[in-house]
Amino acid sequence: MAADQCQFDQTFSFAPLPLKKSSLQEKDTAALLMKWSMLGRISAQSFSFDQNFYHYNRDKFALCFFKDPAVVSTLRNVKDGAWMPLETEIVQVDVEPVLCTKVSMDLFDPLYSCGILTFSGHVVKCFHDVYPDYDKLRQEEDSEHYYAVGREERGEFLFRLFKHLCLGGELCQYEDNIDPYIRTTKLIYKDLISVQKDPESKKISVVSTVLKVWAHDDSGRCYPGGQEEERTFAYLIVDPFKRHVTLFYHHYGVGEFSR
How far apart are CA 60 and CA 5, in angstroms? Predict the structure, then answer.
C-alpha cells in the first residue's frame, strides 16, 4: 500500500526487511548495552523502499517514512515507563543531515595523545563534587580537551555513535578503559553503514546517507520522545543503491537487566 501523499506529489512506500542478526544482539555487545543501561532501549529496524532517494528529497522521504502504515505499525514509544505503540499521526518531521564519511577508526587517535586517555587506553579521572566517577572523556564543551577531536569530526556519525554509547542510559556503569566503547562503536557502525570500493583507485567510501530525525504530531514532538534529551535519538540511515533504510534509535531511561 502506498504511503500518504507527500509534498510535491512524490511518495515512497516501505516494507519491513527480514530480520537479520545484528551486532546489537550479539552476546558480548548485549552484555555491554545492559551495563550501559541501553539494553532494550536501543534498536535498529530496516525497511526497503520503492523510489529513488536523493539528498534533495530527504525531507519528503522522512515524512513519507513516518506516515507509511508498514512503518507506523512497528514504531514504539515510552509512555508512563512502558513501551507502547506510537498511536498518533505524524504531521511533520524535522531532518538534520549528518556527516558520514569515515571508513576507519583513526578519528579517535587524538584521544590517546591529548590527556583524556593513558597510553593503555584507560580513561583519566578528574575530581568532581557531585559525580565521583567523573572523567575527562565526558567533560563539557568548556573543557580544554573537548575539541581534541575537531569540530567537523565531532559531527561525523561515527563520533556521534561513539558519544551515544559513552553517555549511555539512566543507570549507566561507565567503562574505565576506552576499548569497549571503540569496539562496540565499530561493530554497530559496520552494521549500519554501507560502503563501496572504487574499482580503479581501490578507495573505499561511504554510500549511506544519515539523517537525524524528530517526528511531530498535532501536539508537538512525539518521536523518538516528547522532550528534548541528548541521549534520546533517532536516525534514518539510507542506502540509496539497495533502497534500504534503517531506523536506528534509543530512548533514554533505565535499560533491561537481563536478556
Answer: 10
